[in-house]
Amino acid sequence: MKKGFLLLLLAMILVSSLAIGQVYDRKETLYAGGGLWSPPNNWNPFTPWAIMTGTNGLIYEYLFMFDPLSNEMIPWLAVGGGWIDGKTYELKLRDNVFWTDGEKFDAEDVKFTFDIAKKYPGVHYSSMWNWMKEVEIIDPLTVRVHFTEPLYQQWSFQLYQLPMVPEHIWKNKTEAEILTGANEGPIGTGCYLAEGYGQDRMIYLRNENWWGIEQLGIKPTPKRIVYLTVSGNNVALGMIFKGELDISNFFLPGVPAVKAAYGIHTYFDGAPYMLSDNTAVLFLNNSRKPMDDVNFRKAVAWAINSDDIVTRVFENQVIRSNPLGFLPIDAWMKYYDEKVVEQYGFKYDPVVSKKTLADAGYKDINGDGFVEAPDGSKVELSIIVPFGWTDWMESIKIIASNLKAVGINAKAEFPDYSRYQDELYSGRFDMAINNFNSNLSNTVWSYYYWLFWDIREQQTQGNYGKYNNPKAFELMGAFDRTPVDDYEAGQKIMLELEELFLKEIPYVPLWFNGMWFQASTSVWSNWPSEHGPHYYPCTWNGKWQLGGIFMLSALKAE
Length: 558
Ligand code: CA
Hints:
- With 558 residues, the protein is α+β, with helices and mostly antiparallel strands.
- It has helices spanning 2-20, 55-59, 107-119, 152-158, 167-170, 175-180, 211-215, 233-241, 255-262, 294-303, 306-313, 330-333, 338-344, 350-359, 390-405, 417-426, 445-451, 470-480, 487-504, 548-554; strands at 29-33, 64-67, 72-75, 78-85, 88-93, 132-139, 142-147, 192-198, 201-206, 224-228, 247-248, 275-284, 319-320, 381-384, 410-413, 431-434, 507-515, 518-519, 524-525, 556-557.
- Strand 2 and strand 3 (72-75) form a beta hairpin.
């Protein structure tokens, strides 16, 4: 009896480890990494910051996709949408789309997805109801969204940010289940199903009944995606060498040096190797002295040698930012005003920095080599980034030495992540690098919304340095209320906003973080590249709708 039990136990262990360590046909399986940092335990689209990457995008889908490379909104669960008057947006939904439990996707699902945020203010997009009025079902495939005060820019952004959920399933869930539930066994409309997961991996199985196969004529090539946690950069690099990882979205130092020898694929053949994904900005705490002084902020901006960071820290895998921090994509650059930047912009020039300080009354009174403030008080500042973020740690060491070179006493400090976040949100820091919401998007509104978020107790969504300028907030709001296709009106506001930003320089844009992407060609080929196909090679959580599905569909088995 005891022996039988042991045998049974042994058999059970064997079976369960087989399930997790299942060996799949390598030629049908894509191994991915760079977007999973802890064991998968959440597939709830209402907690988009905490979910397993791919939940939104591969399982749950959006009304539209946005391709940052072609600057196109691509109809997805919606076949079209447009303003039928100044306050009404009509959505035409795609026919013959089915949830993976067999139920048909229709207007009820779209209405439910918006309405749930009105019912439960805890849903993260509930603030949309400050300017939305009603979601009206015209017929099963037509929805009209009525607004009290349409925020056109934000609306265009939300069209590819909010995944649609099945009303017939979610209407039965409690508020707690919706706001914090794990949602195991997710039912979506997307091109993959959640097949299984283990401590270090998530397994996606292709949905052979996905609507896109017939309606778009595309089909993700890999039958399975095994998304792995990878313990570090070196491990990821080694796995690509050995062909154990097909796509990596990690920042890997050393790639430029070994790329050719090991046949590692990147988007560009040479520098910067990577597409740009977001802007790294030095936040100055405008609520503290001397960062409340525009002349001091100017002196900081002119003192920083971002090229040095680009070369020494990032091995030219990133690009130095322009003074506005606008990512090099058409959606943003069409508003970039060269003349304003020429007139009011900054660049690295320590002589100008020193002169700016001296003219504003910053002098070294006690002869210690560092300036004192005009009122004679000591200037002793710190710059923070989270401990372990090695590229950023090296970057602020360079910034601290740049500042010291012009006479500003600043030191680099590395609190652990939770303390960094706490100090950032509560405004208890002098200077900090951050990029939490400077991601590329269809509208530069999203960038300014982050820079000029209104002042609160906790700056959870941006404007960490509590820059308080009603004019800036007003311009940002005015731009949001400008129809997306009214370029002229938008540009007029943008011009003012750009001039204000450069004259005031509340924060200092530094460089563009890369869309880190390295691929192995041992199993899969036809990866995105400058030579084509031109797709955004991203498997990060919240970004699958920027091109990841097109990338998967373009892949060819070697
Ligand atoms: Ca001094």
